[in-house]
Write a structure and sequence with these properties.
about 30% strand; eight-stranded antiparallel beta sheet; D-amino Acid Aminotransferase, Chain A, domain 2; D-amino Acid Aminotransferase, Chain A, domain 1; 2 domains; single chain; binds pyridoxal-5'-phosphate; eight-stranded mixed beta sheet; alpha+beta
């Protein structure tokens, strides 16, 4: 991810606190929050978040991409962390209120407004190492972000790691800090020791995902990716790309892929591999690194099908193509 991605914030955010009930949504300065140093989140990592984007269309309208699916996943992460429950509509209003407030600041494509809903356990109770936080805070930060591919498209170097684990296999569906913390040392090791940019984690079943993106491969007219199970994060971009691919007439196959199969097929010139996530949409993988050896993916250059799918998805997000799936929510 680009180094400065997400370092600029709009001056205010929406907040709501749970203490028996959810407080009315309020806007407050986004430069600080106050909490007790014994807050549950700081000790026992009761934290999860979402990442979605709002786009400015040529007619001046502002649209949020797949907000409902992101809110559903936010609810699921919160539930897996035993954080207080919330209604879908409450979070939808927190998001649309703050995007509405900064409607005029949503940049034109290829830039966008990145939206970061966050939910943390607030209870000051360091004895609750094995119990949930009774109180919590939700807030929605906004950060204008530029084009991920500024400076041209690059092909990523991806380390295939069957030893390190991103997170526990039963915790993969939480989009939260704890999982990022456990993945960090493997990713930093891969950068330092293998000149890799990302790590594709794998277990006995096959390859899973990277620290913050889903993995998929394309071979001719077929797109193959891991089937949904509880060991990994079900990306909204993954779902969107598979939907487009299916409607384009591609064969979509959801099945496990072993490292051996991946490396065997990588040399095929028709082969492409990509990482999907909200930030980059769909980024091409140029090289797999496994047991000290480099394997070029396809031609080693960003593949045409990955690029075409990304452009097709961007066209819907940017209002340059119709939205037949109802993925866009208007604001204001
Ligand atoms: C956010 C995330 C993704 C990508 O999800 P999108 O909804 O496509 O942005 C994939 N894997 C992990 C671990 C993530 O945190």
């Amino acid at each position: 991810m680009a180094r400065d991605f997400g370092t600029r914030f709009m001056p205010e955010m929406t907040v709501s606190k749970f203490d028996g009930d959810w407080s009315p949504i309020a806007a407050q300065s986004s430069d600080s929050i106050s909490m007790h140093p014994g807050a549950h989140v700081l000790h026992y990592a009761s934290t999860c978040f979402e990442g979605l984007k709002a786009f400015r269309h040529a007619d001046g309208s502002v649209k949020i991409f797949r907000m409902d699916k992101n809110i559903a996943r936010f609810a699921q992460s919160s539930e897996l962390l035993y954080l207080p429950k919330f209604s879908h509509d409450h979070v939808a209003k927190m998001i649309t209120d703050i995007v509405g407030q900064y409607r005029d600041d949503v940049p034109e494509p290829p830039a966008s407004m990145y939206i970061r809903p966050t939910h943390i356990g607030l209870e000051a109770a360091i004895g609750k190492a094995a119990e949930p936080s009774d109180t919590s805070l939700m807030y929605v930060l906004l950060s204008p972000v530029g084009d991920y591919f500024t400076g041209g498209e690059v092909s990523l170097r991806l380390l295939l790691d069957s030893v390190g684990m991103r997170c526990g296999d039963d915790h993969g569906m939480v989009k939260g800090g704890g999982n990022y913390a456990s993945a960090l040392k493997h990713i930093q090791g891969a950068i330092k020791n293998h000149n890799a940019q990302q790590v594709l984690f794998a277990n006995e079943q096959g390859v899973s995902e990277t620290g913050a993106a889903n993995f998929l491969m394309i071979d001719g007219n077929e797109i193959i990716t891991k089937p949904l199970d509880s060991s990994f994060l079900h990306g909204v971009t993954r779902d969107s790309v598979l939907t487009l691919a299916r409607d384009n007439g591609m064969q979509v196959t959801e099945r496990d892929i072993t490292i051996e199969e991946l490396l065997e097929r990588a040399a095929n010139p028709e082969y492409e591999a990509g990482l999907s996530g909200t930030a980059a949409v769909l980024a091409a993988v140029g090289t797999f690194i496994h047991e000290g050896k480099d394997y070029a993916v396809g031609s080693g250059q960003p593949g045409p099908k990955i690029r075409a799918l990304r452009e097709q998805l961007n066209a819907i997000q940017w209002g340059q193509a119709p939205d037949p799936y109802g993925w866009l929510t208007p604001v204001g």
